[in-house]
Each structure stands twice: as structure tokens, then as C-alpha cells.
Amino acid sequence: MSSSVIVSPSSVTVRRLPRRPGWDTDGARRASLRTWLYRIATNVCLDMLRSAQRRALAMDLGPAADAGATIGPPVADHRWIHPIPDGHVLPAAGSPEELAVQRETIRLAFVAALQHLPPRQRAVLILRDVLCWTAVEVAQLLETTVASVNSAVQRARATLRANAPTPGESRRPADTAQRELLDRYCAAFERHDVATLVSLLHEDATMSMPPFGWWIRGRDQVRLALLDPGASCVGARLWPVQANGSPAFWQTRPGPDGGHLPFALVILDVLQGVITGIVTYLDADRLVPFFRRGAVPAGTGRWDRTMPRDQSGVMNP
After folding, report:
1. DSSP H helical segments within the chain, as ranges?
2. Which of 9, 93, 142, 288 could bridge across to 52 with cysteines, CB 3.0–4.6 Å?
3. Cis peptide before 211, with omega less than 30 degrees from 0?
4. How much is the pTM?
């Protein structure tokens, strides 16, 4: 298989392309093309990383606010870690164990932790620990020595240990307890049952709403935010979507014609049976086209509650 790179300033991310006829008969040519593609994409990403500010989540931009405080102006787009569809970065097939590990590497918290690494260390760590390249392959790709690669990955691992990602679980389709937690959360959200919804949160749960730098911490603060009449989610619904290897949902609101319109992309952090974080990306108009399949049914611009969903959470108009 060959690969192509999704260029993003926040990470160097790779997805696999479908196998093309004839490639299996020429391993040397296939390996050469693979290395060439990675070299071009890696160099582009390194150039972008060197010229960009460190991307972040709201919790990295400033202290927690109070639920009643003004949310302020939006933060510039280039400061944010953006969501990405699982299908863009994870293989279509794989063992449950492999997919579980790979989902961990695209969680928002992991991507945020990567921002602490210098560009070359970040590239080396992803190539070695996420894509499982050998030190020799990485050295050839980056036109450096094996010793340099080993040194970079050791420094990168040490930095990540000092700036460990916020603990959390990736999306686990076979985990009955996680599914039940998410079902209860969605049901409470759609009923606007704030008491039940808050009971599912960790006592120090966080809530943020990019592109605004506003964020809050704690069940009591989340309760106050959800009870604010100006921020009411009455009538809103949640639709499963696969994003950042985590439990995630499109949030829709009733439209003027009775259908539902996309309002936000919600990504949850889950740990040991409770929800520890809620990140609500409000720029749905920009995100829906990026997610394509499983977003808005073609030609409608809205959701219809009667449309079936398959087990992966993809809408089937």
C-alpha cells in the first residue's frame, strides 16, 4: 500500500490509500514511491510547523471562566487544534486492539500534548510510535542518521511524559459500559434533562466551545451553563459521528421547515464510566463539508430524524 499525507499544522497525519493494480508485483518501486510521498509531505509539514504558533485547546489558552461570564470574541483559527474524521487517518480494517491504539493517537488530548514538541521531534515520534517505522526508515526519510532519530524520539518521549495527555478513553464500539454511558448522555441531552446529564460528569469535568477561548471546569459550573436560558439546547439532537478516535456527535437544532440543521460538533472525553470533558466546535458550516459522508444528506442541507443510521453512526439518506 502507498500513503498520502493530510497536511495539517497541528500534526503530521497519514492515511492509507486503496491498493492499486500492479503494485504488489514491484515491491521496490512501491517502497520507493512510499518513501518519496512521505518525504515530500513530511517536509511540507515541518515547514508549516516551524512558521506556526503552537495550536491548543481552550484549556491551554487561559484560566477557567465562570458559567455566567461573557464568552468574548472568537480566537483566531490558526490557534486551534481542529477535529478530524476517523476515516481520514485510521485504516478501514484492522484488529480491535490495533484500532484502539490508533484511536488513542488522534485524541484531542494527545494532539494537544504533541504541540509541546519541536517540529522534527514531533515528526520522528509520529513516524516511529504511531506509524511504526523503523529508525532506519525514518533516518532515510528525513535524510539524517539513525543515532539522530533515536535521540530525537527519546527526547520526544521524555517531553510527552512531562506533558502527559489528559487521561481518557478512545471510542470503544464493543465496550457495553461506554455505549450505555453515551446512550444515557444523549437521551438526557435531548430531553434537556440537566440534572441527569450533569450526574454523568466527573466532578472536575471541563466544557469548552471553540472558536471561543471561554471554558469552564466542574459539574456545578456546567450545570449553570446548561440552565442559562440564553444558551438553551431545548430541541437539539445528537447524531453519532467518528471523530478524533473519541465518542463524538453532531449537534443539530430545529430548522424553520421542521428538519434539523447542523449546529456544532461535540467531542467527549470519557474515563472510567464518567464524562470528563465536552468540546463543542461551533463552526459546523466549515466542518460538515470536511466530514463529507455522514454529515448532511446530499442536496438537503438538513437532517431528518426519520433517516436511519448504521452501527458506525453514519447517516443513510
Report:
1. 27-51, 58-61, 86-89, 96-104, 108-114, 119-125, 135-142, 146-162, 176-191, 194-199, 219-227, 284-291
2. 9
3. yes
4. 0.73
